[in-house]
């Protein structure tokens, strides 16, 4: 799917299919009317992701860049991005989630000026309250 | 052009998407003004007419984006696991509000985690084990992003080249 900034200032997203790839750009098959495509070069984000029915086999690639309108369609030029593929092992996946969020989360807690919530106490209170 | 439907009277085939799709593609703006999109699981609250997404304090960049610029888009276009056929596409544009009282969020999250565990076995492993909850305690510290819709467009058969159903406040 492709997202650009719409005329009203809000992001607008539409399903997109990737066509011919040339270097770090690709022609996309998208609904140009919905995305209000015109001749202007615009910042854009292209996301591809998947998961199965049980929310495993998770994979995502998000590319940031710009779009230009061409006679062949909309061309996306990538300038950066991120990719993630979950390990098949749930144990390894959860281990990594715990590790990464611990490393990154401490800075965010400092920014927020808060401590980690006491989830075990919340669960005990919930259990006592029958919730 | 048809008159948009009020958001508080959405048809069942639209609200079914909010309930059945496992993930939505959520977009915020980076500090440079570039759209940044990521898949997230969320909940639709028909009573308030808002959408609630949660993210870990370890993945808080999207919440920081919303604090700076609340304009957001949410696209439901990936029907795997929903059981819906035909699979509609729904686009919501709206304003996000970050709720970052972590202690208050923990109470609310404890009430919604069971449904998450039912949908995602790997999260069940975390939620049902005290050891895993401890290891993933930063993952379980959640920031909420509540989105108030300004415009909803939906395509019942997923074909966005057709005229959409549209709702506004």
CA-based shape of chain B: globular
Protein structure class of chain B = alpha+beta
Characterize the main sheet of chain B: 9 strands, mixed
What's the CATH class of the domain at 5-105 and 142-157 in chain B, please? Mainly Beta
> Do you know the CATH architecture of the largest domain in chain A?
Roll
Largest protein-protein interface? A-B, 59 and 65 residues
Largest sheet of chain A: 7 strands, antiparallel
Structural Rg of chain A: 21 Å
> What's the CATH architecture name of the domain at 5-105 and 142-157 in chain B?
Roll
Helix share bin of chain B: 25-40%
CATH topology of the domain at 5-105 and 142-157 in chain B: Pnp Oxidase, Chain A
Oligomeric state, counting identical vs distinct chains = heterodimer
Explain this structure:
The complex is a heterodimer of chains A (131) and B (169). The model of chain A has no long low-confidence stretch (mean pLDDT 91). Chain A has helices at 90-112, 119-128; strands at residues 2-5, 11-14, 16-22, 25-30, 42-50, 59-70, 73-85. Chain A has 2 domains: 1-86, Electron Transport, Fmn-binding Protein, Chain A (Pnp Oxidase, Chain A, Roll); 87-131. Chain A is elongated. A 7-stranded antiparallel beta sheet of chain A has the order 2-1-5-6-7-4-3, with no helix packed on it. Helix content of chain A is 25%, strand content 42%. In chain A, β5 (42-50) and β6 (59-70) form a beta hairpin. Helices cover 28% and strands 36% of the residues of chain B. Chain B has helices spanning 12-20, 61-68, 102-119, 121-127, 130-135, and strands at residues 5-6, 24-29, 35-40, 42-45, 50-56, 71-76, 89-99, 142-155, 165-168. In chain B, strands 1, 2, 3, 4, 5, 6, 7, 8 and 9 form a 9-stranded mixed beta sheet that branches. In chain B, a hairpin with a 5-residue loop joins β2 and β3. Chain B is globular, with a radius of gyration of 17 Å. The mean pLDDT of chain B is 93. Chains A and B meet through β1, β2, β5, β6 and α1 of A and β2, β3, β6, β7 and α3 of B.
């Amino acid at each position: 799917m492709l997202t650009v900034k719409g005329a009203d200032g809000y992001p607008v997203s539409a399903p997109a299919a990737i066509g011919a790839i040339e270097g770090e750009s690709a022609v996309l098959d998208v609904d140009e009317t919905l995305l209000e495509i015109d001749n202007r070069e615009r910042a854009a984000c292209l996301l591809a992701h998947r998961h199965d029915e049980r929310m495993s086999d998770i994979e995502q690639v998000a590319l940031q860049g710009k779009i230009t309108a061409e006679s062949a369609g909309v061309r996306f030029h990538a300038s950066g991005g991120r990719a993630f593929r979950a390990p098949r092992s749930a144990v390894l996946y959860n281990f990594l989630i715990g590790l990464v969020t611990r490393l990154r989360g401490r800075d965010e807690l400092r920014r927020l000026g808060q401590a980690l919530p006491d989830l075990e106490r919340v669960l005990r209170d919930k259990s006592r309250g029958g919730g | 052009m048809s008159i948009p439907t009020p958001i508080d009277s959405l048809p069942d085939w639209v609200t079914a998407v909010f309930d059945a799709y496992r993930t939505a593609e959520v977009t915020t703006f980076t500090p440079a003004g570039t759209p940044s999109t990521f898949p997230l699981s969320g909940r639709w609250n028909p009573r308030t007419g808002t959408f609630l997404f949660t993210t870990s304090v370890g993945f808080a960049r999207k919440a920081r984006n919303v604090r700076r610029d609340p304009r957001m888009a949410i696209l439901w276009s990936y029907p795997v696991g929903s059981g819906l056929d035909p699979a509609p596409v729904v686009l919501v544009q709206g304003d996000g509000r970050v709720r970052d009282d972590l202690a208050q969020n923990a109470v609310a999250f404890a009430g919604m985690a069971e449904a998450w565990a039912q949908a995602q076995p790997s999260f069940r492993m975390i939620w049902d084990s005290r050891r895993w909850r401890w290891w993933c305690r930063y993952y379980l510290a959640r920031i909420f992003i509540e989105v108030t819709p300004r415009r909803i467009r939906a395509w019942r058969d997923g074909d966005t080249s057709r005229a959409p159903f549209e709702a506004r406040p």
